[in-house]
Amino acid sequence: MTSYQPKPEDKFTFGLWTVGSRGRDPFGAEVRTSKTPAELVYMLSEVGAYGVNFHDNDLIPIDATPAQADAIKKDFRKALDDTGLKVPMATTNLFYDPIFKDGAFTSNDAKVRAYALQKTMQAIDLGVEFGATIYDFWGGREGVETDSSKSAVEAIKRNREAMNFLCEYAIENKYDLKFVLEAKPNEPRADIYNATTGHMLAFIATLDHPEMVGVNPEVAHETMAGLNFMHNVAQAWEAGKLWHIDLNDQYGGRYDQDLRFGSRDIKANFHLVKFLEDVKYDGSRHFDAHAYRTEDFEGVKDFARGCMRTYLLLKDKAQQFNSDAEVQALLAEINDQDAAMSGFLGKYSKAKADGLKAQSFDRVKIASRGLKYERLDQLTIDIITGTR
Ligand code: GLT
Ligand code: MN
Ligand code: MN
């Protein structure tokens, strides 16, 4: 029996904005007091996290003076040195300030687009200063309330122009940095461009430096779009583009909930963790979630510990699934290969095509076989619930 204690190799990370969330929502004010970035680092170390990620303005307020910025950076650096916490990822806040009300890279206003580039270059410098090697782009404001306001094609072109510009900036500065694009279908805008991870993968292929750009899928965001999150993650991984992941939880058809990882859909998250562990995903496991608004700072610790514990618990269950004799026997049976078919499948040849056209299949007999997926799924449930 494992103790489910997080270890550095688990690469569990949290954003300053996640554990630092004060519980404000569109209908209610903050319920928790403000903590400094350094205080949050000490807290994350206490609960056993590996790293901390930040937006430029999580660390340095947008209106800080250079002297204030230096003091904050000094305290933050000391906290990192004291605790050994890493900064694997950084990002830009291109959504909070009113200047971004009509988008950042896709704004109709050229001054806003230029400011967004300037802000991102400065934020990249800041991230690199603290050791980040992954740089996230979540374009929460890159969308519309009304399609009368903007050309959807022009928005894609503006987004591409910005990404190409920033790739060149990172290359010119010899930064050891990869970019990841994080999709979301809506909220805070009514509709956001490049709404899913699949859209992002297609978009990346059109960039000048596709090799520098991958994806950062988030459970809640793809669930809001009604999609199977693990399938999107699998496609990104198969494309060699899964360089970061935002773990949380979400009920479909609702506002962006950012719930504690695994708190809602245990089975879906079991399959997600099993996938990540089976393929040996070795990037950060970033929890992009918030504690309930009911919690005080001790409750935030419970939330953070819970995210990591549930991940490790599901990892343990995935190992159990992989070594369960009955499950494996069923899987072997399902995947049993018919040697006679190997001459027809795989890469095309004229001989194969001719042979295949001449072959007769007993359609009814083939279709009459029961696949035992009900049994398999119940075994999965028994494993997840600890009944087995
Ligand atoms: C914001 C959003 C997250 C993004 C963060 C990175 S900010 O909290 O809801 O999904 O990952 O910009
Ligand atoms: Mn996220
Ligand atoms: Mn979210």
Task: Give an overview of the whole structure.
The chain is α/β, with parallel strands linked by helices and 388 residues long. The chain folds into two domains: 8-323, TIM Barrel; 325-385. Helices cover 46% and strands 9% of the residues. The protein contains 15 helices and ten strands. The radius of gyration is 23 Å and the shape is globular. The mean pLDDT is 97. 5-thio-alpha-D-glucopyranose (GLT) binds at residues 17, 55, 91, 136, 138, 182, 218, 246, 288.
Q: Helices and strands in order, then pairings?
A:
Blueprint lengths: L11 E4 H4 L17 H11 L3 E5 H4 L6 H18 L5 E3 L18 H20 L4 E5 L4 E2 L7 H21 L5 E5 L8 E2 L4 H8 L8 E3 L3 H6 L4 H10 L7 E2 L18 H13 L6 E3 L9 H27 L1 H10 L15 H9 L4 H5 L5 H12 L4
Parallel strand pairs: 1-2, 1-10, 2-3, 3-4, 4-6, 6-8, 9-10
Antiparallel strand pairs: 5-7
Helix pairs in contact: 2-4, 5-6, 9-10, 10-11
State the gist of this model.
By secondary structure, the protein is an alpha/beta fold.
Strand order of the largest sheet: 8-6-4-3-2-1-10-9
User: Class of the largest domain, according to the CATH hierarchy?
Assistant: Alpha Beta
Major sheet? 8 strands, parallel
What amount of the residues lies in strands? 5-15%
Strand tally, please? 10
User: N-to-C terminal Cα separation, in Å?
Assistant: 14 Å
- Mean pLDDT across all amino acids: 97
Key words describing this protein structure:
single chain; 388 residues; alpha/beta; TIM Barrel; 8-stranded parallel beta sheet; two-stranded antiparallel sheet; 10 strands; globular; binds 5-thio-alpha-D-glucopyranose; binds manganese (II) ion
